[in-house]
Design goal:
The complex is a heterodimer of chains A (230) and B (570).
Chain A: H1 20-28, E1 34-38, H2 49-67, E2 74-78, H3 87-101, H4 112-127, H5 129-143, H6 154-180, H7 185-192, H8 196-209, E3 212-218, E4 221-226
Parallel strand pairs in A: 1-2
Antiparallel strand pairs in A: 3-4
Helix pairs in contact in A: 1-4, 2-4, 2-6, 4-6, 5-6, 6-8, 7-8
Chain B: E1 8-11, H1 13-17, H2 24-32, H3 36-46, H4 50-56, H5 60-64, H6 76-90, E2 105-109, H7 113-125, E3 129-132, H8 141-144, H9 153-165, E4 169-171, H10 182-187, E5 190-195, E6 201-202, H11 218-227, E7 236-240, H12 244-255, E8 260-265, H13 276-285, E9 288-291, E10 293-301, E11 304-318, E12 324-328, E13 334-337, E14 340-343, E15 347-348, E16 382-384, H14 387-390, H15 395-413, E17 425-428, H16 438-441, H17 456-461, H18 463-475, E18 498-500, H19 510-514, E19 520-522, E20 528-530, H20 540-544, E21 550-552, H21 557-565
Parallel strand pairs in B: 1-17, 2-3, 2-5, 3-4, 5-16, 7-8, 7-14, 8-9
Antiparallel strand pairs in B: 6-15, 10-11, 11-12, 11-13, 18-21, 19-20
Helix pairs in contact in B: 2-3, 2-6, 2-18, 3-6, 4-6, 6-18, 7-15, 11-12, 12-13
Classes of the chains: A mainly alpha (230), B alpha/beta (570).
Amino acid sequence: MRVPYNVNVVRVMCVGRIDPALVLETFANGADGVMLAGCKPPDCHFVDGNLHAERAVKMLKKLLALAGLGAERVKLVWASPLEEKNLGDYAKDFSEEIWKLGNSPLKNPVLAPKIMANIDAAKNAASEFRLRVLLGREEELTEFLNAYGEKISKEEFDALLEEIVKAEFIRYKIHYLAKAKPLSVKELAEAVGIKPSAVLRHITNMRRKGLIALDKVEGNTPLYKALEVH
Amino acid sequence: MEKNLQKVRKLPPCRAACSALVNVQAYVSLIQRGKFKEAVEVIRKDMPFPAICGRVCFSPCEDACARVNVDQAVAIRALKRLVADIEREQGRVKPEPVPKKYSEKVAIIGAGPAGLAAAYELAKLGYPVTVFERMAEPGGMMRYCIPDFRLEKFVVANEIAYIKDIGVEIKNGVEFGKDITLESLKNDGYKAIFIAIGTQLGMKLNVPGEELEGVVNAVDFLKALALGKPIKVGERVAVIGGGNTAIDAARTAKKLGAKEVIILYRRSREEMPALPHEVELAEKDGVKFYFLVAPKQIIGENGKVKAVECLKMRLGEPDESGRRRPIPISFSEHLYEVDMVIPALGQVAETSSLPPELLSKEKRGSPIPYDPQTLETNIPGVFVGGDLATGPASIIEAVGAGKRAAVSIHLYLTGQDLLKGRDENIEEVTWVKDWSPLGKKARRYDPPIEKPHLSFEEAVEYLEELKQKARFEAFRCLGCGPCAECLAGIDLCEGDKAVVDENKCVGCNVCAVVCPVGAVKKDEKGIARVNEDLCKGCGLCAARCPEQAITMKKLSNEQILALALATSKR
């Protein structure tokens, strides 16, 4: 199989093997694009690993958009061993798409710090327990019944996922920013780009989870500092 | 509590059902990916007759195939035939003779599937092997009994050529008991002997009139055809029996020009041992079946067969074979007007050529007493197997016996315990247990490949289409077992396994939910545990675990990252 010179190929047993956090780590290390190739449904050798990958990429695109890298930098293709178009062709197409998008903004020295913070937040969000549980159980919840005998519609689920992805991303962004030095709600709101009331809500949640703590009070303003994430 | 220390080898149902333990899952996986040549190599690792079994095996693998619970078994035999035929058509690289590692000579009596399989295994180990065969050509029943329209002689010759190429010597026209004996073989320096002469005598009907002209035993009938002797086929032929030999004889008679061919069987259609698709083909050829009838006598005129008188039968209690015993109904005599009767009742061994010291005193059972695990007789160094030992069975069972004999001979010649390594139990393993969700998850395609009755010409003509069909058919395989070990050099799958870090696991059960084969489950303590016999190393659990508590033994996340970021390339 021949791929363009700028493409690295990693063979795994199933495309569902790829942890979204790993993809974000790859971007954090300077990759301009990541393509996942899986067996076309319903050919998955492991029944539905390819569908798991589909869900993971759905989430990745959201996170990459939030991070400012762009959703198009990650792509999932179905490369069936039973079809003419082979992996090399897909790699070539993707490589051209990425050329058009240009270098990852991480390589831009002006943007780099902000993008790095974003990717870090995205990676942590993708490693976050409740998001991973949601992804892992999507099929179960939308196609079968939950513990209460209820079935969740696809739209409901997607809306839920959207909300949680955003929330986790913002929380970890706050966490990243509050690592260097203690920050106030107002400062955080400006840096992240959301309303102070929203920041406070997140902080309340994060305090409960042990991600952030009150550091000190300057005058009337509480300052929060991020705690180590184990 | 005593631990069961018996070794258990866990295999998918297809492989567990095969007498020769052919790695079915492996070669089906290879066919999925279009690796037809590699598929044949995998088959040849376990047995030397892919093209033969691809045509005439009774495929216990298909009977065991778990897919049968979804729609229909995977057409394993058809796939085997296809890859073997592709190999023959494209030509295979002639194998090099295996270098002789040992000096002890091994003699094998009988070049049927059991003898040849034993020779094959021993030659691969490095023993000098000579197979002594009575007939002019090797192959046994494969060459001399199964008709050409089922199994072409050039196919048999081609398969045996491989065995000769790796260094097995075959001496034809040598009769055991006459030209060679146990004594003479010992004097010639053979250190171990495997007797596999099969069952060459057709069983008699034992009814009056059997000596009339026109009564030809099925085995003699088919052998004469195979030898190219002129056979006179009657106008109306009655074949007595219900096995594959009866079907073969009946179809042969029809093809040779008999106007009417009937098969008389004493039980019902369901009890017929013949393969169902062979019965169908016989019916398509115009053979008529009469069930629950058995001959009482053969009536002749001027010394020739004129009719066969039969009694109607009813089925009583099961006999020792497990099938219901046929009981004659009094006063139900009726006639079939035929001019040829072909009894096809089964075969027995020719014991006249066997040394008396080996023979059994009992009338029933194997003519030569032997240990079923090691195949040794009461003479050390002399082994027996195949149809001779078990009674008429099948090619694949004979191959299994040949392999077993080869192991025994190797252990014997290297002075080891013949029971070494034999205490292994085969256990069937499949992840496909609960069928209800499978309906949704099973890969569904066009109906499976028709059972293979394409002639060689048709197969060649539609080869490309067949190849594609074969890949779709192979994709129907559910992959019951864990990593199929099809590789040894083929970079197709890494045979990875998942490992749970117990300290990180919180028992959320997501891994169990996403595992496609049910290999990860929570134990009594609520911690996820990986069943390595089922784990196929897909890594889904590792990718989804909310605590990232699962890692893959062979290809970790760190390794994937390193490969993804590698700066030194081509």
